[in-house]
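Re: the 367-residue chain
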Amino acid sequence: MNEYDGKQFVGIDLHRQRSVIVRQSESGEQLCAVRTVNDPVALGLQLEDAGADPEVVLEATYGWYWAVDVLHAHGARVHLAHPLGVKGFRYRRVKNDVRDAGDLADLLRMGRLPEAWIAPPATRELRELVRYRAKLVAIRSGLKAQVHAVLAKAGVLIAVSEVFGAGGRQRLATVPLAGAYAERVRSLLDLIDVLDGHGARFSGLIAERLDADRGYQAIQQVPGIGPVLAAVLVAEIGDVHRFTGPAQLCSWAGLTPGHRESDTVVHRGHITNQGSKLVRWAAIEAVQRHQSTAKIAADKDRIEARRGKNIAKVRRGPQTAHAGLLRAARRTHPRARPRQGGVSIPDATRARSFLCLTPHRRGRPPD
């Protein structure tokens, strides 16, 4: 039985098969360091020695979902360390699992932990569906590219807008190909049909989960955003109220320019590309399908002349919103703050922040 009965800070270096748990006192004294197998029961037993309401930190590493759920179930206050914020660990002269877990506990104890948001189980499940559907579409696109490659080898050009549409498939079936090429195309088409079926199934599951989500309905008011892109944004962003404003949301999505400054030297580069790839893809897809306003068109022409067409697309990506849609979203999805002086003050809605993906202007990007 541990003699220390004060508040404890627990750092966990989570791995695939085994993990190291380090417990510290409020003063930073190491109370215990153990290696345990990755099992919910074993992790729960180790947490019992940490007292009531321990502060626990683990890195957002491969397969962290189950550990966070177990820790929450045992009453721990769980913190998720952002991998980019603790990457300096790798440059130590001595690096091992106990040091990693101890350093995580130290950062948490001193209030210097770079934290990542812990998505609730429902959001994680929605992300699983959305991301898997995106993976199926990416695999299907690769298979379609292989069909085009086989046709190119044979010097065949099918003059239709969509080779894999009804008319294109009929034309494709009549193309005379040699034995090996014909067999490969037939196999690819069968696989594409299978993936189409799975994609439709997961699209239905996603639509069923989001059917009553008012934010999902509101964000589709933005020109260029339909059900697929709206599902990506809702799933990946999650609780949008965790962002204090649109600039922070854009920064999290990796749509703001990098900023490196030392003394009188300042470098502002390309967008950081940190955060969710799917969010960046959705924003750029939306703006390419979106009917440009006068301001967006002017910004595009100015940036395209200076930086090129692709960068202009990325710069326009966050500009898929405007004030009229913002007002509509506020009416669609209201939320109230606590009363001040007896008056309930409307707060920014979930849809509002979706629609406020306004990029930070040239200068210092948001933190």
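DSSP finds 14 helices and ten strands in the chain.
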